[in-house]
Automatic annotation (TrEMBL):
SMART domains: BLUF
Protein name: BLUF domain-containing protein
Pfam families: BLUF
Domain BLUF: 14-109
Source organism: Rhodoblastus sphagnicola
Length: 150
């Protein structure tokens, strides 16, 4: 499908959405890691083009993602994500007009949770992530939703 957004300048107010979903990525750890790498590669390319920023969390079972940008760019990105067969049970947790981005400069930040691909989040890492994004509440809220997903 042709993207509706062609420039970063246009199309409305700044919005932030947060959703969670259940991963359908299957296979070995390496295959799942390759699946995540694919998602991130496309996300970095498209989001940089469309001035969409955000963060993706994955804990091996579930995703949570924040997307932020001009309203049409975010809606278009989310429409693609909704149709993606690599996840299901997508729940929109938040849709808000905002005055500033939480993930300015991040085409898509990526954080893995415990039970992910064998990594755990150390307090130091979490602290660094929070400090980098300068928005502890958003990061922690995402973490909470990912960990609580049934
Ligand atoms: C959990 C998850 C998160 C995704 N996040 C993004 C994203 O932030 N930006 C994006 O363009 N595509 C994202 N995708 C991929 C889209 O669903 C879709 O495959 C992609 O936008 C198609 O891009 P293309 O038309 O350039 O091939 C994500 C997919 C999944 C499963």
């Amino acid at each position: 499908m042709e993207r509706a957004v062609s420039s970063a300048e246009s199309y409305g107010e700044l919005v932030q959405i947060i959703y969670s979903s259940r991963s359908l990525l299957a296979g070995t750890t390496a295959e799942i890691a390759a699946g995540i790498a694919d998602i991130l590669a496309v996300s970095h390319r498209n989001n940089a083009r469309d001035d969409v920023t955000g963060a993706l969390f994955f804990n091996g079972r579930s995703f949570a993602q924040t997307l932020e940008g001009k309203s049409l760019a975010v809606a278009d990105c989310y429409a693609h994500i909704l149709k993606d067969k690599r996840h299901t049970d997508i729940r929109l947790l938040r849709h808000e007009y905002v005055t500033a981005r939480c993930f300015e400069g991040w085409a898509m930040a990526y954080v893995e949770g415990p039970c992910g691909l064998g990594f755990t989040i150390s307090p130091g890492f979490l602290h660094a992530t929070v400090a980098k994004n300068d928005e502890a509440a958003a990061v922690l809220e995402l973490m909470r939703h990912v960990m609580a997903y049934p």
